[in-house]
Write a structure and sequence with these properties.
Organism: Aliiglaciecola lipolytica E3
Strand content: 5-15%
CATH topology of the largest domain: Aminopeptidase
Order of helices and strands: HHHHEEEHEHEEHEEHEHHHEHHHH
Helix content: 25-40%
GO molecular function, one term: dipeptidase activity
Structural class: alpha/beta
Protein name: Aminobenzoyl-glutamate utilization protein B
Pfam families: M20_dimer (PF07687)
InterPro entries: Amidohydrolase (IPR017439), Bact_exopeptidase_dim_dom (IPR036264), Peptidase_M20/M20A_hydrolases (IPR052030), Peptidase_M20_dimer (IPR011650)
Length: 532
């Protein structure tokens, strides 16, 4: 036994707790028993999970406008004894919910927002909007908060009954589709005292990964050009066209693209091209996403964009400025946490799909011309990061910012259908059906089990912190892409929701009258296209 004096022991203990080492220690056998108990507690909440999932699906709100969704979730959490802080980081629909006290602090996060023009009746294997042209959950973000809340409720009950020390925290990814908020949460210090983050994201497989398997970092920038209006036919020489600047910037970026790294992804839309053809546009705006593999290359690509904007302004005698709409670091996920989470995923196993579930999946796949493989029936192996030299980039998620300031893991839970295009009406088909409900319960069990590990296994927390400090952040430290003057763009999607919200309200789920949302919509499960 080490011979250390009382003072040294207290110092060592302080270091342990400052790094999130668990205050409660269980044996392996005790942890296994605890996991069985929290999994059983999750099963008991299956009806609540279905109701919450279907309710959020029916709200179908876009980023920054998740008013009904956030009100519904925070009301439930407050009723469960969680302390709620509303409007965090200057974002009206963002919040933090906490329960418990002391270390470690384990946070559960996931997203809220839907996709434009993705309205779709669930359980219908062809395109049939609930409200034509309206938003919908064409990615499946309606399900993630349910995974987290059901897991948190199971842990809260167990911790209360067994005197487990620690704090549970829940938070929403507002406007994830715009990658527009999580960097602000970090900037405002909401993760300064958090020891580990468990992140949920809907998938069609059940598994996890570590490091960075495919994520790109990204900055989302609007370029605003300012000229002078004039009559387009009577005195065009007196005008300075901001739209010409937008178009010339696009031409410049497209020519420059040939000389950029293969890992870059650059795409844009014109969000303001002027008012009418006979007026020289005095203002015009284009919106760019610049994606690359790491902080230095994202910054360099952003600077290329600025150069193109400057050149376009010079050619058109206009002025320009830019607005940061969102940012995302490339994610990096904790290996010890991922490996322990996968052990728990293996304990849970895949959901048992019914014939109806599989028939719906194959019918949707057939409808969009994808391979008709049905639903996944095996776990996804843990994905290891590729050789960095072979990385070519891909999608982005602003969870990346959080993953670089707190040890984090990513759970993919099986609530959707394989081989779909993403950000599409077809991705909404399963999201208020038994497929989604079963995947939520599986995901909640896995999270609840991993939280038991984090709250009761000091050795795991030590490994988690060692990887974070001596592997992940040893040579790369987090620097926010945000400028000091940047603010959340909370006006986004307000006009779209103003157009559709009243049309959507009659279709909000009423669990007092209907057992499921399918029943409320009169959908026979599954509904297939009639053979012609």
């Amino acid at each position: 036994m080490l011979n250390i004096n009382k003072k040294a022991g207290l110092v060592l203990l302080g270091l342990f707790f400052s790094h999130g080492i668990s205050a409660t220690t269980y044996t392996d056998a005790q942890r296994e028993t605890a996991k069985e108990q929290v999994a059983a507690a999750v099963d008991k909440q299956a009806k609540l999970a279905q109701v919450m999932n279907d309710m959020i699906f029916s709200f179908a709100e876009l980023g920054f406008q998740e008013i009904e969704t956030s009100a519904y979730l925070t009301k439930h959490l407050a009723e469960q004894g969680f302390k709620i802080e509303q409007g965090i980081a200057g974002i009206p629909t963002a919040w933090v919910a906490t329960w418990g006290s002391g270390k470690p602090v384990i946070a559960l996060g996931t997203d809220l927002d839907g996709i434009p023009k993705a309205s779709q009746k669930p359980g219908v294997a062809y395109h049939e909007p609930i409200v034509e042209g309206a938003p919908g959950h064409g990615e499946g973000h309606n399900s993630g908060q349910v995974v987290n809340i059901i897991a948190a409720m199971a842990l809260k009950e167990y911790m209360s009954e067994n005197n487990i020390e620690g704090t549970i925290m829940l938070w929403p990814g507002v406007a994830e589709e715009q990658l527009a908020t999580k960097a602000y949460y970090v900037r405002e210090g909401y993760f300064d005292d958090v020891d580990a983050v468990l992140y949920s994201h809907v998938g069609n497989r059940f598994g996890t990964f570590y490091g960075n398997p495919f994520f790109s970092g990204m900055v989302s920038i609007q370029y605003n050009f300012y000229g002078e209006s004039a009559h387009s036919a009577g005195a065009p020489w007196r005008g300075k066209s901001a739209l010409d600047a937008v178009e010339l910037m696009s031409v410049g970026m497209n020519y420059r693209r040939e000389h950029l790294r293969l890992a870059q992804r650059t795409h844009s839309v014109v969000v303001d091209g002027g008012d009418q053809p006979n007026v020289v546009p005095s203002k015009a705006t284009s919106w760019y996403y610049f994606r690359e593999l790491d902080y230095p290359h994202v910054k360099a690509l952003w600077e290329v964009g600025n150069q193109m904007a400057e050149g376009a302004a010079l050619m058109t005698d206009t002025r320009w400025d830019s607005t940061v709409m969102g940012t995302a670091w490339p994610g990096h996920y904790n290996k010890p946490m991922a490996m322990r989470a996968f052990e728990n995923i293996q304990k849970v196993g895949m959901p048992e799909w019914s014939e109806e579930d599989i028939l719906l999946a194959k019918s949707v796949q057939k409808e969009i011309g994808a391979e008709e493989i049905g639903l996944a029936d095996t776990l996804m192996p843990v994905i290891a990061p590729p050789d960095p030299k072979k990385m070519t980039g891909g999608g982005s998620d602003d969870m990346g910012d959080i993953s670089w300031v707190v040890p984090s893991m990513w759970l993919s839970y099986p609530s959707n259908i394989p081989n779909l295009p993403g950000h599409h009406w077809s991705n909404a088909v399963a999201m208020a059906t038994p497929i989604a409900h079963k995947g939520i319960i599986a995901g909640a069990k896995a999270h609840a089990m991993t939280m038991i590990d984090l709250f009761t296994d000091p050795a795991l927390m030590a490994e988690v912190n060692d990887y974070f400090e001596n592997v992940q952040t040893k040579d790369m430290k987090y620097q926010s892409f945000l400028r000091d003057t940047d603010k959340p763009q909370i006006h986004l999607n307000k006009e779209i929701m103003s157009e559709f919200r009243e049309k959507m309200k009659p279709f909000y789920y009423d669990p007092e009258k209907y057992d499921t949302y399918l029943e409320q919509l009169g959908v026979t499960y599954p509904t297939l296209k009639t053979q012609e």
